[in-house]
Amino acid sequence: MTMYEDSLTLLQKRQKYVNPYDYNIVFFGDSWVGDKGYTSNDIFQSALEAARKYNPLFILHGGDIVHNGAKENFDFFINFKNKYEPDLPLFVAVGNHEMELINPLDKSQSIENFEQMIGPVHFAVNIPEYNLKIISLNTLDQYIYGQYGLRNAELTFLRENLKQHCQSTFVTMHVPPKTDKWQDPEEFFTIGSELLFSEIKDKTAGVLASHVHAFKTTKYQHSRVFVSGGGGATLLQKEIFHIMVINIKSHGKKSKVSFEVIPIGRS
Residue 188: which domain range? Predict the structure, then answer.
């Protein structure tokens, strides 16, 4: 059973205890959990402990849960998460560090271990009782490290899952899209970025991304975009480790969504 399948089971159980008219989900990314010394396991542990205080329906991770996609690293991550929060569902958007180097000569990468142990590279979680939908997309363009974007298959998947309206729909991915404020091609993808914003216009409560080890937010083409990459990996200057708590309150046929950044661990 993958972590994704296990989290779906845990989600069914949590729906018995979490108020569908006033509830939280927690988002953060870039944790680099592992046992090689370059990781920040204590920060990830702090993130889980902070998340628990908000009694979330689930945790959504923006990717780069490990430093590289070897099986032993995913094993370590799964065991670590289950040691501290075995009952909280945790869904993962696939990140570039989830890829495993297969051939150093042509720098070819594989995502097979992630798919076998963590879950699918794109997915949609629909929770009608909460009027909530999560659509997770794969920004790893042709599995080439440093080349990111959304090709036709991802945009088609997004389009199909946006057809059925939901009060609160979030689109998540690892690498954030380029906007008028965010232009760096190493940090923000351009392939499919304008088509993404065209598809989601007036249909989502927010775009949730990671990859940049910081907190950023902007509004572009009528969509709110958040970047939360403070889950344990080395931070950019003057940034803080953090989680993002998303509160959703339902009022009849409408919902009110608010966002709060919670500092964790040490900087």
Answer: 3-263
CATH number at residue 182: 3.60.21.10
Q: Residues with Cβ < 8 Å from 69, sequence gap 6 or more?
A: 97, 98, 99, 100, 109, 110, 111, 113, 114
Domain count, the chain: 1
Which of 166, 183, 176, 214 lies closest to 197 in space, CA to CA?
176
**237, exposed or middle or buried, with CB in 10 Å at 0-12, 13-18, 19+?**
exposed
Which residue, among 144, 215, 134, 220, has the nearest Cα to 177 in the 3D structure? Answer: 220
Which pLDDT belongs to residue 98? 96
Chain centroid to Cα 56, Å, comes to 15
Q: Is the pLDDT of residue 37 over 80?
A: no
Tens digit of pLDDT for each residue in 71-124? 999 999 999 999 999 999 999 999 999 999 887 776 778 999 999 999 999 999
CA angle in degrees (0–180, nearest 5) for 110-116-118: 100
The tens digit of pLDDT for each residue in 127-144 reads: 999 999 999 999 998 887
Calculate the alpha carbon distances from 179 to 2, 190, 197 in Å. Answer: 34, 9, 10
State the DSSP code for 242.
E
- Cα 65 from Cα 94, distance rounded (Å): 9
